[in-house]
Every structure is written in C-alpha cells, then in structure tokens.
Design a protein that fits this description.
Layout: H1 2-8, E1 11-17, H2 25-36, E2 42-47, H3 52-55, E3 61-63, H4 66-69, E4 91-94, E5 100-103, H5 106-116, E6 120-125, H6 127-138, E7 143-147, H7 163-184, E8 187-192, H8 199-208, E9 212-214, H9 222-235, E10 241-246, E11 258-260, E12 269-271, H10 274-284, E13 291-295, H11 307-326, E14 331-336, E15 339-344, H12 345-350, H13 360-367
Parallel strand pairs: 1-2, 1-6, 6-7, 7-14, 8-10, 8-13, 9-10
Antiparallel strand pairs: 2-3, 4-5, 11-12, 14-15
The structure holds 6-O-phosphono-beta-D-fructofuranose.
C-alpha cells in the first residue's frame, strides 16, 4: 500500500530564470512544460525571480502547466521573472546601521528545496547563474543548466538563444542610422551590449555593413579610427561613417567605461557609455565631421525572439527535460556542431567565450574592409 502510493507520487521539477532577461526564455519554459506533460508523473513549477521565489517568505512559486505556457514562445522576457540580485551565496542582508552586506544563505535555499519536495532544478541562465548551479550541484542539489545570454559569451555552447535576436535588433537599428548618417554626412557611433565579448558588435557590423567595428578583444587605436574616418571624407565630401562599438571596447591605452553598480545585491560592473568617450576623443584628436552617438541598450533584449532563437530555445528546453528524465544532473545543455548535446557544469563555466582576433569571422570583417580599430 505504502509502496503503491510512493510509485504514484509525481516528480517535481523547479524552473528558474536568472540574470538578465533574454529573448527565448519563455520558449524554453514552454518546451520544458510541454515535454513534461507527455510524461504521466512530472509536475513543473517556477520560482519567481530566480531563487528569490523560494527564499522569500511567503514563497513565490507558481505551477507551470500547459495552460500557463500556452503561446508564450513568441513573448520576450520571462513569465517567471528574473533578477541579477538573487545569488543565494551572496544574499544581500540589511545591517542595523542601514548598510548592506552579503551573506551565504545557501543553507536556507537547500532547506526550502527539500521542504518543497523538488526532485531537481532546471536553471536557465548565463555564466553567473551556471556558477550558482555548479555550487548547488556540489552541495547535492540536482541541477540542469540551460545557457542563455544575448552576449553569446559561454564557451561551452556554439551559440546561446537571444543572441540572434539581439543581432537582428542591432542590425535593423544600424540600417536606420545609415539613412540619417548619409543625409547629414555624419559619423554615427552605435554602442551595443555584449559585456567583455564583441560578438554582437562584430555580427552587427558585418550584417549592416559598418565602416568601423570596435570590440573588447582588439583594443582600438584612436589614430587608426581617425585615419579611416578621414579617408572616407577625403574620397567624398558627402561621405558618412557608421561605427559599431561594443560596450566593453577598450582604447589602446586601456581606457574603457565601467561603473561599480550602486544597486543592492548587484555584483556586476555596469557597462555603457563608451561611445561618448570615443566621440570626445575623436573630437579632441581633430575629427572635423559631425558625430552623433546612439546607445542601443536594453532594446537589444526586448521584444519577440527571432524564429532561430525560438527553435534553439525549444530544443534546449526539450533536451533539458529529457536530461531530468534520464537523471543526467550536473550538466548543461549546449549546441555543438549543430547538434544539441550536454556538458558538465564545470565545463560550462570554465572559460569565457571571447571573439578570437585570428578567427575567420574577424577575417570576414577585415575582408569586407571593416576597420577593426587596429
Ligand atoms: O548580459 C546581458 C547584458 O544585457 C549585457 O550585455 C549588459 O552589459 C548587461 O546585461 C546589462 O545588465 P542590466 O540589465 O543589469 O543593466
């Protein structure tokens, strides 16, 4: 009798989305739920704002069934919310004097996971989230990772979902800037996201036909940038120049733009504004052309995912659930050589995925005549 009851007990899977949001998150959630619904004894839940939903009192956990995920694959963002201030190993705690310190609250998280009866967790997130996944796995929690980030900076997977959408948005923005740049014979500098990797900038520059592309992996020489601008205007007075600059780009002298965030619990440096630095440096170096700047910002993360990202996200979601079914915990789904595979969580966070300056993609850019700032 007791055994029969145990046999019928559903397995409970918790899904969390952590770090910055990213187009395709909802498609992963939907795929997990749809695949789980084909099994008779699995229930899927979502923790609101990554692990915060589990940690908060009262808890914020939602049941994710087929009706909850119906049609969400076309929506940007994440229906279960996300945060980059929810690291249980560095949990922000307000002190008596009003200041904030961080504490390791992973013990509370483990207790909550056990009390709620979750058999495993699927954590959809970038490198920060997968580092948390690895730590939890090492403490005995069953975790499966799904890589997400518009930055494409996870080396264990050939591509993350969200990246293609960000590139598409940035390319369309640059296409728009071309018409206004051409009308006014201006230099347009467009800053894109990507943290310490130049993937979004490089793909956008190639797709949109930029004149100059500046990425963190190739520190730029201001003189080289200025020479390219002047060469354009020397050929024709009615020229224009479009520059794509990655938010993490660095000048040859090492200068970049990054601020320590003041938001409680936010542990990343905040990038943004390097296009302003470039404009001021160009002006100071004698650039005669009119220059305008555009910081594309969070627009790159918003709106509907491209079809490619929906497909990749769905493939990751289905595979992640099947890994839970097989008991392949401690691993992250990945795309390698056009196949969905899985890697250990250690491998998932081992190396940062920088653009290789010697790669064929950089040669493509140079072959198209794009100045890489060197
Ligand atoms: O990692 C994704 C990303 O959009 C980066 O490209 C960017 O630097 C950062 O997140 C911005 O973070 P936030 O949304 O916290 O400002």
């Amino acid at each position: 009798m007791f055994q029969a009851k145990l046999f019928c007990m559903p397995k409970k899977l918790l899904v969390v989305t952590g770090g910055g949001d990213c187009p395709g998150l909802n498609a992963v959630i939907r795929a997990i739920v749809k695949r789980a619904s084909q099994e008779s004894n699995w229930e899927v839940y979502g923790s609101i704002e990554a692990y915060n939903g589990l940690m908060f009192s009262p808890q914020e956990i939602v049941r994710l069934d087929e009706s909850a995920v119906s049609g969400i694959h076309v929506q940007g963002g994440t229906i279960i919310g996300t945060t980059n201030k929810g690291d249980p190993f560095h949990w922000p705690v307000r002190q008596e004097d009003g200041s904030w310190l961080t504490e390791d609250r992973s013990d509370l998280l483990l207790q909550r996971i056990a009390e709620s009866g979750f058999d495993g967790i699927i954590s959809i997130g970038g490198d920060g989230s997968q580092r948390i996944s690895l730590q939890l796995q090492q403490m005995g929690v069953n975790v499966i990772g799904v890589p997400k980030t518009i930055d494409n900076d996870l080396s264990a997977t050939d591509m993350t979902f969200g990246f293609q959408t960000a590139v598409q948005i940035a390319t369309e923005a640059m296409d728009k800037l071309v018409t206004t740049a051409a009308s006014h014979n201006r230099v347009m500098i467009m800053e894109v996201m990507g943290r310490d990797a130049g993937w979004i900038a490089l793909h956008t520059a190639i797709a949109a036909g930029a004149e100059i592309c500046l990425i963190p992996e190739i520190p730029y020489d201001l003189d080289a940038v200025l020479r390219r601008i002047e060469a354009r205007y020397a050929r024709s007075r009615r020229a224009f120049v479009n520059i794509v600059i990655a938010e993490g780009a660095k000048a040859l002298d090492g200068r970049t733009v990054a601020q320590t965030a003041t938001e409680t619990g936010y542990r990343n440096l905040r990038l943004g504004g390097v296009c302003q630095m470039l404009m001021e440096d160009l002006k100071a170096a004698g650039c005669q052309a009119d220059i305008r700047t555009t910081v594309l910002g969070h627009v790159q993360r918003g709106g509907i995912p491209t079809a490619f990202d929906r497909v990749l996200a769905s493939a990751f979601g289905v595979r992640a659930f099947e890994m839970a079914l097989e008991g392949s915990w401690g691993r992250m789904v990945a795309l390698r050589n056009n196949a969905v595979v899985d890697v250990t969580l250690e491998e998932a966070v081992a190396t940062y995925n920088h653009v290789n300056p010697g790669s064929q993609l950089i040669r493509t850019a140079r072959g198209l005549g794009i100045c890489m700032g060197d």
